[in-house]
Amino acid sequence: MTTGDDDRVFSGHWVFETDLRPLCEAVAHFTGYAFDDRDWQAIGGALPATDAGRHDGWSPIRCPAASR
User: Fold this and answer.
1) Cβ atoms of 5 and 13 closer than 8 Å
2) 50 close to 59: Cβ distance less than 8 angstroms
3) How far apart are CA 6 and CA 22, in angstroms?
4) Which of 1, 23, 34, 60 has its CA 20 to 30 A from that of 41?
5) Is-above-0.85 flag for pTM?
6) Residues whose CB falls within 8 Å of the CB of residue 16, separated by 6 or more in sequence, listed in order
7) pLDDT in tens, 15-63
């Protein structure tokens, strides 16, 4: 389902907080990854300190798919 604000959301390179877990679950589903509460805890712990505007603003947690 889409809303009239879709262009604004995606052009700003961010996702509404309430949509983040469903987005993660959807991406996991389509990639065959079993997303669970431990994944969500890792995201919840790392996300507050994440800032795309800083050179060191990303979480040090490595994405398993990144090594493929």
Assistant:
1) no
2) yes
3) 16
4) 1
5) no
6) 9
7) 777 888 999 999 999 999 999 999 999 888 887 777 767 777 666 666 6
What tokens appear for 44 in the block? 């919840």
Structure tokens at 29: 């589903």
* Segment 29-38 long-range contacts (CB within 8 Å, at least 24 positions apart): 31/65, 33/64, 33/65
For 12, the token pair is 């700003």
Phi-psi region of 13 (alpha: psi -120 to 50; beta: other; left: phi over 0): left
How many residues are present in the chain?
Answer: 68
Separation between Cα atoms, residue 44 and residue 46, nearest integer Å: 6
Cα Dmax for the chain: 37
Q: Read off the tokens for 16.
A: 């509404």
